[in-house]
Amino acid sequence: MPDANLMPVVVQHAVTGEILMVAFADAEALERTRQTGWAHFFSRRRHRLWRKGETSGHGLQVLRIRTDCDQDAWVYEALPTGPVCHTGAASCFDAVPSGVLATWLWTLEQIVRDRQGTDPGVSYTARLFQAGLPHVARKVGEEALEVLIAALREGPDRCVQEVADLVYHLTVLLVAQGRSWQDVFGELRTRHLQASSEAAGGSSGAAGRPEP
After folding, report:
1. What distance in Å separates the CA atoms of residue 144 and residue 13, rounded to the nearest whole number?
2. How many CB atoms neighbour CB 171 within 10 A?
């Protein structure tokens, strides 16, 4: 049984929502996490405070801390700097992330952000940023047209390749405008909830309406 002063902490990916690991924390670990922005826990085996990544270098940058209604369990919403599990897997629960698409988009976005300030002479991404937003927007339009041509004339395999190019350029466009794929996911979620609410309202209205 865990110590009464320890509370379970679920670590959740701040972008994909994937569950990464579960550990325990005491009051000191929670306070250290709040102060530093990096995940701290209490090791029941070693009986001491520890910071995730202090040995491996793969830390967890905590963006938000939440608690449940009874305040006896916590959630760290975090961004990992490397594999979370000691096996080298991205998550302690599954070797393959459950939010695969979101995970790859987040990874691509981080690469684009890292390349933003590099030498345009060696980085195509840096050259796009250097050319400015109008150029990036035109590239997105060109890639969208190539998707259309591939879909109509060149077959599904070529279409997949062109869609990948489009996704890359869309990522550059989002970063150039100070936005992210997380903003896109948020907009899609808002639309989904709105559509679900309207559908539920329409169903209830139809059920209560007398037939002619």
Report:
1. 31
2. 21
Q: What is the pTM of this model?
A: 0.54
3-class SS of residue 7: strand
Query: How is residue 9 annotated by DSSP?
Result: E
**Hey, what long-range contacts does 114-121 have (CB within 8 A, 24 or more apart)?**
116/175
Helices (H) and strands (E) in the chain, counts: 6, 6
Domains of the chain: 6-80 (3.10.20.810), 100-201 (1.10.287.1080)
Q: Identify which of 195, 161, 172, 178 has the alpha carbon closest to the alpha carbon of residue 115.
A: 172
pLDDT of 97 higher than 70: no
The secondary structure of residue 150, as a DSSP letter, is I
Residues β-bridged to residue 10: 22, 75
